[in-house]
Structures are given as C-alpha cells and as structure tokens.
C-alpha cells in the first residue's frame, strides 16, 4: 500500500507482481480477522484502504505485469487485474468466490464483471464463484498473454532486466502462446447471455438453471453453488452488477462496494459465511433470511446506505482517519 500510494513511480517504471512460492499469485485476503472486531473499526479501515489501493492500481500510469502462475482469487484479483499486462499459465485458477461466504464480488468487481468479453459471463462468475482455469482465463479476456509455467522464471528475469517500459509488450509477445486449448465455457455462452442479464431477477436465473441443469454439467454446477449461497448476497450481487453496468467511473464502484461490505459485516450473512466455511468449516451456513423470496427490495436498499452514524465516506485519496 505504502509503496504504491505514498511513493508514486514515474511512468517509465515497471512493476512485476508475482506470488510468493509456486502455488498461488494471491488466494485472497484474511477475512476471518474482519469478523472478530465487534466495533467494526477493523472492517472499516480494511475495506477503505483495500479499495483505495485497488483504485490507485487502476489509475496509475506505470507499466504493471501480473504473473498469474497459480491461484488468483478475490483480493488477488483486485491487486492484479488493473495491471496493463496479465500473464496466465496452465496453472492459473482465477475466480471471485466472495458470494460463497456471504459477501459480494468486491475489489472492483462491480466495475469489471459487467465489462468482461462475453455477455453474461461476468454475472455468472460473480454469482457462482466459478473459477476459470489455464487457457480459459485468456479466452475470457482476463489475461493479455499466455506463457507456459516453465517459462515464467525466464520471463521474470527478462522483465527485471528491461530499462525501457515501452518494450514490455514486445517482450511478452515473444513469450506468448497463441495455440491454446478450446474454451471450456464455449457451448454455454448463449445460455449465459440469455440467462445472466442485468435486467433479470435472481428467481428467474434460478428457474433457468434448474430447467437446464440435467443436460449441462456447467449449469448443474451453477445450480448447486447458488443453491448453497446466501439469498441476500445473491440478490445484492445482482443489484451491484446492474448498477455497475451503468457506471462511468470506477470510483463509484468502490464507493458502492464500501457501503455494501460494511452493511454485510454488521447486518448481513458475512459473519455466518466466514464461520461456516473458514472457521468451524462445517460448511453448513445458516443464512438469514433463508430464501430468495424473503429478500425484499426494501431490505436490499439498506445495503446502499451508511451502516454507522459516524461512518467515514470512502475517498480514493484521503487517508482513513485515526
């Protein structure tokens, strides 16, 4: 955070982002810590500063290269998707799993999911948490280059030796593999475009996947996953996506996500989702309310209003007050 925001680099600088070890780029943030502070100060500061960093990465002019050689999940997406160059390998596993824990696709998801390459794929990924593997990340338009994982150390070394940022693209192109396996979601793209639309409802989506699931394993997975998720988070994720479609500035997306995340931390299903999946790990969350029908438009609207009387409004530049 300090490196990026307090010490701006010149436009000629090159940042190479990689994960520690050989398993993941970044598998997400430590959300368990956010559920233990009942004053909610930890959550307020965390989301405020995380979204500031995400926005800063979106707007910085220096060349960034993200080496996605492993898991790229949740918070890992937020710090790397803004990169000018994003390199996938056969080991890449990309996803936004927040809805599974009673949250919503954040870290800019409200902005970038509606703008993915194929109609409906962004909403499908946001609601189900489906993870794209390997070449699928290229097919979806999320990665800019595909490089075999065995070549990543060599590529990283070459990137670190570059002195002219304008040559980064050409270097990556020289490693890029164009002959890729087919897109595993190709046959489902028409269904996604028809079903996962901004002008639909969660009830209509569930009805469509229920009708189609027996004939399609991808749709069956979508049905299984969404049936186990928080009804509130599902409806909220759809509404956030809908609003994100009409936004013209990513600042608005982060301000909206900040509002929703704090309400979910206090009054939503986030604490229960974290308990069931990450703390007790019984995988039996007790969502409240339990059904989509019980989540009313009026109850959803509260998630777009301040949660606390003295809530700090999110700002892309101002430090979080002490």
UniProtKB/TrEMBL annotation:
TM stretches of this protein: none
Entry EC no(s): 3.1.2.4
Keyword Hydrolase: yes
Sorted UniProt keywords: Hydrolase
Catalyzed reactions per annotation: 3-hydroxy-2-methylpropanoyl-CoA + H2O = 3-hydroxy-2-methylpropanoate + CoA + H(+)
GO BP term (any one): L-valine catabolic process
Superkingdom of the organism of origin: Eukaryota
Keyword Ligase: no
An annotated Gene Ontology molecular function: 3-hydroxyisobutyryl-CoA hydrolase activity
Domain Enoyl-CoA hydratase/isomerase: 10-304
Pfam families, alphabetized: ECH_2 (PF16113)
InterPro entries, A to Z: ClpP/crotonase-like_dom_sf, ECH_dom, HIBYL-CoA-H
Protein name: 3-hydroxyisobutyryl-CoA hydrolase
Native source species: Strigomonas culicis
């Amino acid at each position: 955070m300090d490196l990026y925001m307090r010490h701006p680099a010149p436009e000629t600088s090159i940042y190479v982002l990689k994960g520690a070890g050989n398993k993941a780029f970044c598998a997400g943030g430590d959300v368990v810590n956010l559920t233990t502070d009942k004053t909610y100060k930890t959550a307020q500061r965390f989301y405020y500063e995380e979204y500031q960093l995400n926005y800063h990465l979106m707007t910085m002019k220096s060349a960034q290269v993200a080496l996605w050689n492993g898991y790229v999940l949740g918070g890992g997406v937020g710090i790397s998707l803004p990169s000018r160059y994003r390199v996938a390998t056969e080991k890449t596993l990309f996803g936004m799993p927040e809805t599974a824990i009673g949250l919503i696709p954040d870290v800019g998801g409200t902005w970038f999911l509606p703008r993915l390459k194929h109609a409906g794929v962004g909403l499908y990924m946001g609601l189900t948490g489906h993870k794209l593997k390997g070449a699928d990340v290229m097919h979806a338009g999320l990665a800019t280059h595909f490089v075999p994982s065995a070549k990543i150390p060599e590529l990283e070394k070459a990137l670190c030796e570059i002195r002219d940022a304008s040559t980064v693209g050409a270097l990556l192109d020289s490693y890029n593999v164009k002959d890729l396996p087919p897109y595993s979601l190709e046959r489902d793209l028409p269904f996604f475009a028809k079903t996962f639309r901004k002008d639909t409802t969660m009830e209509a989506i569930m009805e469509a996947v229920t009708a189609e699931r027996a004939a399609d394993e991808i749709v069956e997975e979508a049905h299984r996953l969404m049936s186990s998720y928080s009804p509130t988070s599902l409806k909220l994720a759809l509404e956030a996506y809908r609003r994100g479609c009409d936004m013209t500035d990513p600042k608005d997306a982060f301000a909206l996500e900040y509002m929703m995340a704090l309400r979910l931390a206090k009054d939503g299903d986030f604490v229960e989702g974290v308990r069931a999946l990450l703390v007790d790990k019984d995988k039996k969350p007790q969502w409240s309310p339990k059904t989509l029908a019980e989540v009313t438009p009026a109850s959803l609207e509260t998630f777009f209003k301040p949660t606390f009387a003295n809530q700090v409004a999110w700002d892309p530049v101002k430090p979080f007050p002490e």
